[in-house]
Amino acid sequence: MIKAIHTKVKGRARYKVNQLYGSLLLQRYLERSLGNNPEIIYVSANSLTSNILVIFTNKHSFQTIGLLLETTLRKFQEKSSLTPTESWLNNQRLVINDANQENTDNWHLMTADRVIDRLNSAKISGLSSESAIANLSKYGRNVLTAIPTRSPSNILIDQFKSLPVALLVGAAGIAMITGGIIDAVVIMGVVGLNAFIGYTTESQSAKIIQSLQSQEQILTWVIRDSQQVEIPTENVVIGDILLLKSGSYIAADARLMEADNLIVDESPLTGESIPITKTTAPVSGENIPLADRLNMVYQGTFVTGGQGLAVVVATGRFTEMGKIQQLVNQSTATDTPLERQLDQVGNQLVLLGMGICSFVFGLGVLRGYGLLTMMQSSISLAVAAVPEGLPTIATTTLALGIREMRKNNVLVRSLRAVEALGSVQTICLDKTGTITENKMLVVEIRTTTQQITVEEENLNPYSNDELLKLIHISVLCNESEVTLQDNGEYAVTGSPTENALIYLAISAGVDVIALRQKYELLETNLRSENRNLMSTIHRIDNDHKLIAVKGNPGEMINLCQWWMKNGQVVPLTAEDRRVIEMENHRLAAKALRVLGVAYSYVDHGNSDNYETNLIWLGLVGMTDPIRMGVKQLIGDFHQAGIETVMVTGDQSSTAYAIAQELELSQDSQLEILDATHLESLTPDELTAVSDKVNVFARISPSNKLQIVQALQAAGKVVAMTGDGINDAPALKAAQVGVAMGKGGTDVAREVADIVLEDDRLETMIIAVSRGRTIYNNIRKSVHFLLSTNLSEIMVMTTATAAGLGEPLNAIQLLWLNLISDIFPGLSLAMEAPEPDVLSQPPRNPHEPIIKNSDLGRIVFESGTISVSTLAAYIYAILRYGTGSRASTVACMTLTTAQLLHTISCRSENHSIFSQDRLPNNTYLNTAIIGSLIIQLLALAMPPLRNLLKITSISFVDSAVIVGGALLPFLVNETTKIGDETAKSKLEGF
Q1: Mean pLDDT across the chain, nearest whole number?
Q2: Among 966, 972, 798, 977, which Cα is nearest to 868's?
């Protein structure tokens, strides 16, 4: 059975396929078969949830794709006369049995009490310490099987798995057949040396990437021996009672016993982006997908709202996450898109070289040259076509970039994030904790009779009944923990907003601890996705309870029928409500976060909704200061061509005031979209308006995810910043998720691509600069390798076609590539940012590493080097005739010209004649000077001279070589001035 379950977004649909559950064979078949259809852009099937996501071209409907899916499924069923091995694979249900592990997977079908009994645990007391130790010994630690990394031997073997290396090996084989034993040995020696260099650089890169993995010990709250204790997650065992609360990771697979508005994000396991509301009731049916087991929670998922209790039923590799990890046998080493592009460029260059080799070989044979001679020339051309330094450039550059960013307290968790940084077009800034310091302070209170500025007045609540009641309710309806230290100071632990209310009470002389002891807490109702308020229930005496409520004033006012005025509780009229709303807007317009405070009394026997018929007390206005440097940072983003969007849960008026102060919209009209209007928009409408909005106000976690996805649908590369649990879904969905290192939650840091370790948002612009520089440096290296290799092909092809003999033999070409390709190419990858890197717009993420406009420049530069080298070679022929002396002049000229060309490749726009000097690159200087010294040593040392078949040169030869190398360098640098002038004129229009 196939059912379309999500079809609102055009060109995107999610289907439920019952037959898919537990069948990895069908999962792979659907992904492979559907992916071969031209109308389908992307397909992802999940055998755990029975869902399949299909992204397709807009000209097709989801019904058409559904029919295609049905046809594909039918073909699979027709082929189901499976081999024994296939049948075994198809019937696997991700069940891994073990003698020491509970093998019952049907915990979701049982009642919570039965599960607890089966596991010999208890809801109130949990496991005893002795039982926990026994279970830990029996089932093992709660850790997943380590994902295998590339071994040193695999890294070394991979150096030989490429088309360029295959071509060199083939050339060595041909050389050996034609009698060139020394040539063959040298070619294979260069292959081995190149493999060693690649192995060394990739090993270092792998170590850098491995070091990014967090070594911090994660802790989990459990009940043991009737006590709530925090233990290392790896020590959680079957039978433990987990305490679940908003912002906590779920340590192991567990069956829920209590769920109070419990909402869990299961996207790490099931891929479903919408958080799931959990229940405790047993479910019924067979083969129920994980996403439909509402009474279960799973390791690796996290709580986004509410609270609950759950008993652990599986740990470590026996959890659903552990089974997937074992079954799929994931590998950490995957090519990034950039690495794949470079592989493609290298293969294309090799194929081009092979084509030219064949052409030259055929042309030589037709012109009467001997087969052996043309075979040797073809070997030389094949060697010239191979870009030896290309395979290691991307990995090395990306890894070194990650290391550089770590020096600026920017922790990058993946190579793909580095690539995406260079093309970020829109950055969504979460206000609280990111733009602001996340250190709330109460600055203004508005009761029914007073307007109090906290900073300017000594707060004396005992002279005003409404103020005293407001402060008391703010303390009671509050989750912050308060302890009195030995020095008489209070230690307050909790959220910034709730801490601010506690500090307000302390400064007003209220004994916070005694107040809480007087009114015993009976129940807490936390804020949830569609409910922006919190309430607590307290015991007054045996007959009465106090209801304390705080939250969004707009929602709170609708729950109030009374208000306290001059110590009396009087009805709240429509005019009174209008006055409160106006006061709310006044405070919000001052960029304050505003909370409403109310209360009521109920009898113990009253079990109706407590959050009704409330008594209004007043408004509390808090400020969260904007971080220093954020306004300048916004300006830097704008200069870099990056659009800035603020996302906040605050009211529109508060958000507007902050956005105005930050000049978020630059010089244009500031556009705000409130969540109430956002909900009424279709996905297509939201996509259409998303890139015109500067501020999204009163936003919920699911709204943040919608915003990121809408911007992406509009073609934007999106970065999202955040620090809270509510930011996690959007952080994960963005191309670049950025979390705070110190003030952020564990969940936010876990899902983010980049972590700012010192919480300074200003380092984000450093990350963008470095991301752009890394990409630019890779382009510079590729540009250099292509232009130098192409110049070798041009020299060899032209000389052979013109009957000028062989300017360079195969060994000289290998030596040339070894000296002038690898180390100079890598040194270009270590260039510092150019002066105008943040004055350029973001790059198009879809543009190839080498654009069409680059090809003309590469051909021109290669042509100047080739012409100059051929001119020096012809001079030598005229003076010495064809032979080793002429070949020496050609080899030295081409080598020196290529080394100087490294300087030209440092920048597309800045030349040596430009006023803006490029930063010094000591690596490049060392590579050029070192390579020149090695080249001169080859001339001076007889063994090397004999191996390369070169001779000593005269002073005149030296002058010709220097002139032949300098001329193309000066020509290429001079043409940059013309390009730079033309560009400046265009920018002036």
Answers
A1: 81
A2: 966
